[in-house]
Structure formats: structure tokens, C-alpha cells
User: What shape does this take?
Amino acid sequence: MTTLKIPTPRVFVPLLGRSRYKGAHGGRGSGKSHHFGEAVIELCIQYPGSRVVCVREVQRSLKESVKRLIEDKIIAFNVGSMFRVLNDSIITPGNGVILFQGMQDHTAESIKSLEGFNVAYVEEAQTLTERSLEMLRPTIRGKAHEPGKEKTIAELWFSWNPRHASDPVDALLRGEHLPPDAVVVEVNHSDNPFFPAELEMERDFDEQHRPSRYAHVWRGEYEPTAIGAIWTREIIHRNRVKEAPKLTRIIVCIDPPITNEPGSDEAGIVVTALGEDGRGYVISDMSQQGSPKEWGAKAIAAYDFHEADAIVAEVNQGGDMVAHVIHSQRPDIRVIEVRATRGKHVRAEPISALYALDKISHVGAYPELESQCCLMTAAGYDGEGSPDRLDAMVWGFTELFPKLTRRGQVHAGPRPQKANNRYNPHRPKSNRAKRG
Assistant: This one.
């Protein structure tokens, strides 16, 4: 018999029993992820054969998941002989399993593969969309751990740093009406007896020098809304959709970084589209740090995957460099070079007006991009660094809605005449055309 000794901070004690919903919200350094990572290990040992899926809204790679954290807990508890760590999953006692997935990758059909799972642990739950929450809740039904016994475990666990009261997880677990059998705790760094000295230095620095961000980052308060912000989360949420209609134009947009050094800004790479309904859609955010060759390859991959009509790129910093980077790898791609003659906030205002008029939707969730939107004000960007994702998106919709742009300011070259009517971002991968 294996006995685990897990020192548990007092604030998490209400979560130790069995409940359909368990939630922990708060700021950085509170130990939320550590608690749920330990709870996963404990469940799998106590109930052999347990099936657990660890999800987040968007997971581009396993590096973004809690897999490494859970592996570290297995080592720390000295139970490595009971678990088998694979590249994309962990086999648990009794031939159970721990999976790591992104909800945005699931469809109404694929989510059914999780119906026999006992626990879904949602990390960074503030980014979970209403669509994902609606799919996940009825899916987790559990299974009996012993043949012939009716008792099952079917639970949903959530940890998150709150952004806004309108976020679906907040509306569900902090709203006026909690779902049945829900236990939710608020936890912050002051509740964590294992709060490390290194984080205390960071917390103290932010308290002194970043007061506008401190309450959100360290106390788990809602994301501050920049004074005079020209986007709001309510508007973005209101227009979010599960899938786009038939698309008539698709544009890959690049806002290139000035330098390629450690800590440099990202290359904003956002895919925007115009639907046959006349509305705009954000269908992908593939922004990344890296060399020109790396972000150029990522932009070309987005162009091929989405069967885009052109790549739009800002050339203020790089001159002809952007087109050269693209054409050195794929000379046949049409690159529309645009040059900024006004400030970012001035270019962004007409696009934010389209959002306010319910003319633009996000297909799925893009947390980093949406955070940049909500920090753009009529006086400028109120966040740290450069809003590269936002700037790329603005260039895309400026190209797709030319009447909002002063004549001669943005466009270069004739517009493509042939509409891309074949594109469906939700068709099976096996049917996606490959372009050489």
C-alpha cells in the first residue's frame, strides 16, 4: 500500500473532498497549479484506472501544458515506478491515463472521446470560451472504478487568474448562481506557505514599480481596463463565434520585430478574413519570437494552411526586408507592403469601431491578442512592450475594409479579383489542400 504525504496549505482544504466542480482563483504564486497537480497524482493512486484530461483553451505544444509539473510531482513523491511517462501522455496505476489537450482543437464529435474520463482539469481557465465550457461540462461523466459498483468520480477542476467578470468560468463559478455541488476558493501568494524568496522579490518589485498591474497579477483581481480603452472584453465576448462562414478573402498579416535578440518583441502573425456575410473574422494568431527566417516560415505556413490570398506586412522598420524574407522561401506569394504614417492607436480606432458595431468576430479565443486590444487607448498603448499581435490584426482588417482607410495610405498593388470560396477553417485536416 502506498502512502502519500502531501503538505496542503489550509486554503485548499475545502477542495480535498469529492465535488462535481472545484475551482481556485487568484494571483500569481498562490500554488493553484501545484495543488491540482498533486491532486491528480493522489487521485490516480487512490483510484487505480482513473482517467484525467488536463486541458487549456489553446495548447500549441506540450510545453504549454502542466505535463512537466505533473512529471515533477511524480518524482518528488517517489512514485515513478507506478507511472509510465510517454511523449504525449502518462499511463497511471490500473492502466489509467493522463492526457493533455487544447479545447480549441476539439469538435462536438471529438469531445466524445472524453466521456469516460473521471476528471477534467482546466488550467488558465480564464481563457476558456463559452463554447468549450458548454462542450466540456456534460462530457465528463466518469466511470466506475470497480466492476459492479455504481460509484463513479466525475469532476471538473478549474484554476485561473481572473480577467473579467464576463469570462465564462467567472460567470459559472463566481456568478450569482453556482452550479450544484461546487466548491470554489480564492487563493493568493499570502496563502502559500511555500512562497519562494525569488517570487517575493518579483512581487515586491511589482508592488513598487508596476502598481497598475499589481492587483491583477498578484492579488487575482480583474484585469485592469485601460482608461480610454477602445476595445472591451464584453464586445469581444459578445461577438465570439464557434466557426466562420464561407470566407471570400483571407489575409496573413505580419508586424515584424525590429531586432532578433533575446527579449525582443514578437513578430505579430495574425490571420484575418472577410466572410460572405460582409463581416470580418480573426481565424488564427501564430505570433512568435524568432529570426526573420523563422517568422517568415511561420507566416508562409499560415498562408498555405488557410489558403490565403496574400500576406500583408508592415515595412516601416525593415523596408524591403519582409518581402525579401518571404520571397526567398516562396517567390510566388503576393506580399502587400504597407507603411505606417499614423500612430498605432490612430490606425486601430476604425477597427475598434467595427468591433463596437458587431462587424468583427473572433473564431475561438486569442488571449494574448485580446489582452493587447483591451490595453489600446485613444491616446496610445497602455501595456508593456509593443502590441505586435494587435498591430498585425489592424493591418489585416485595414486591408479587408479599405473604405476605413484614407486613399493611398495603405494599399499597394491591385486587389485579387478571385474570391477564395473553397476555404473552410473547420474541415477535416485530411482535406486541407497543400500548396508547394
